[in-house]
Write a structure and sequence with these properties.
two-stranded antiparallel sheet; 15 helices; 2 strands; 1% strand; transport
Length: 493
């Protein structure tokens, strides 16, 4: 065989091996979602088996086992969808890698759920359904099962299409639909539903406005000054103190209130004290970090990375403390109903139920969270540490402002609204600067107005998809819940 022939055969073999490698990579890529589904089913089976071992042969034990599987399914979906709102901006700003974000979020979500998740939850979510309308124990259990399953199905669908939705609203819709199916329209508290519908508008608008105002402050006090480093040394400690104050108050209201009785005034006092302490402590830290930095915008990103990472971790802790009830509240209610034979407006959460919720959120985050984290962090608008910091600060301050005003808000809508607020502010600011430059340039070098309008900094397709998902979450979950209620009623005989 000649060298030429040998070379030909080796090249042919290389091409064949390359094709096999690409085929193997494609197979692994296609099978990756199936691995996640398999592990999710395994987690649900473990949750159901654990519930079976705990309840044993007690009357109604089968309902508890099924409810444990549904609760695990809901917790998985909360981890896959909701956690993106906390970690997406930090990942999009490259302050955290995807792996680092998942590790921090899983740890903080679990800690928040187990440490401050609360010993008591409302079983009829936010007073949606009058307790008397579901006084029959069996009807109550089937309604809670339907609410849990329908909410999980809707959040799963929203995650699949890439839309961050409020899991709280999904549970509210599930409870409402089951209540209507069980006892008619009169069972629902419509004024409460009206307040929740108002939050669809209030939450994202308020979050977006606060994030835009914060970004405007950073631009005009730090970025658009001649000596950026000196300005950063002056204002970044103030912003860190503000962040510490906001998050301390936020954690007190949303997380630690489950452990101790804390009113808004006390939370604000605690926040002010910790904010002042952290702001003073940040002065030497920022001065040390800024040594040798060039007087340019890229240097400023270094000073915002650590506060952004800390804020993402604190948001995850508060989210785990607050939203774990969405997964385990109906499950705890079913356990209570099977033990006592009746229903209650509030019940204590058994430890094993809380563990299912905390573990499910972390497992769902690890298996399915990256898709939504990437979408929130980089596909709506381009984020850097300063912009992402404004989003995180907006999430905390908006919750505090809403609590002070007595407005029902969604943390999901606030965080995503903050991302949109930053993006739309960037569009407005870019257009404003373009007009100013156009006025100072000769006509031949001016950018036409049509071209300026075409250069959007917020992806409209994501905006429309997310807005539509928010609007239909409650009615869609309610419809699914009514169907689930009738189906489960038939199955349970």
């Amino acid at each position: 065989m000649s060298d030429q022939d040998g070379t030909f055969h080796w090249q042919t073999l290389d091409r064949d091996l390359n094709r096999l490698s690409r085929l193997e990579a494609a197979t692994m890529y296609a099978s990756r979602p199936l691995i996640g589904v398999g592990l999710s089913l395994l987690f649900m089976a473990v949750a159901a088996l654990s519930a079976g071992l705990i309840v044993g042969e007690a009357p109604g034990g089968l309902f508890v086992i099924v409810a444990a599987a549904f609760g695990a399914y809901m917790a998985l979906n909360i981890g896959a969808n909701d956690v993106a709102n906390n970690m997406g901006p930090a990942v999009g700003a490259r302050a955290l890698s995807m792996a680092g974000a998942i590790a921090i979020a899983a740890t903080c979500e679990s800690a928040g759920a187990l440490i401050a998740g609360g010993d008591v939850v409302d079983t009829i979510s936010k007073g949606i359904v009058a307790p008397g309308s579901l006084s029959d124990g069996r009807v109550f259990v089937v309604a809670m099962l339907a609410a849990l399953l329908s909410a999980a199905l809707w959040v799963n669908l929203a995650t699949f299409i890439g839309a961050p939705v409020s899991t709280t609203h999904a549970v509210v819709g599930g409870v409402m639909g089951a209540g209507i199916a069980a006892a008619g329209l009169g069972a629902v508290s419509w004024p409460t539903m009206g307040a929740i519908a108002a939050s669809w508008v209030i939450s994202p608008v308020l979050g977006g406005l606060i994030a835009a105002v914060m970004l405007a402050f950073v631009k005009w006090k730090v970025i658009y000054v001649e000596d950026k480093i000196s300005a950063a040394r002056r204002w970044v400690p103030v912003l860190i103190g503000l962040m510490a104050a906001a998050f301390s108050s936020y954690l007190a209201l949303k997380g630690l209130s489950h452990v101790a009785e804390i009113d808004l005034g006390t939370a604000l006092a605690v926040g002010a004290a910790l904010g002042l302490t952290c702001g003073v402590a940040a002065v030497p830290l920022i001065r040390w970090q800024s040594r040798g930095l060039e007087n340019r915008n890229r240097s400023l990103k270094v000073l915002f990375r650590l506060p952004l990472v800390i804020s993402a971790a604190l948001l995850s802790f508060a989210h785990g403390a607050n939203d774990v009830a969405n997964a385990v509240g109906p499950l705890a209610a079913i356990v209570y109903a099977q033990e006592t034979g009746g229903s209650a407006t509030e019940v204590a959460i058994p430890v094993w139920v809380m563990v299912i919720g905390a573990a499910g959120i972390s497992v769902g985050l690890v298996l399915f969270g990256p898709k939504l984290i990437e979408m929130v962090g980089s596909q709506i608008t381009k984020l850097n540490p300063m912009r992402a910091y404004c989003v995180a600060l907006s999430a905390a301050t908006t919750v505090i402002a809403a609590s002070w005003l007595g407005l029902p808000v969604s943390s999901t809508h606030i965080a995503v609204g903050g991302v949109f607020g930053v993006g739309f502010f960037r569009e407005w600011h870019a257009e404003r600067r373009a007009r100013q430059l156009a006025d100072s340039r000769p006509p031949a070098r001016r950018i036409p107005a049509e071209e300026r309008r075409r250069r959007k900094l917020v992806r409209r397709s994501h905006f429309l998809t997310i807005a539509a998902a928010w609007i239909v979450t409650v009615p869609a979950a309610a419809l699914l819940s009514a169907l689930c209620f009738w189906g489960l009623s038939l199955v349970s005989g």
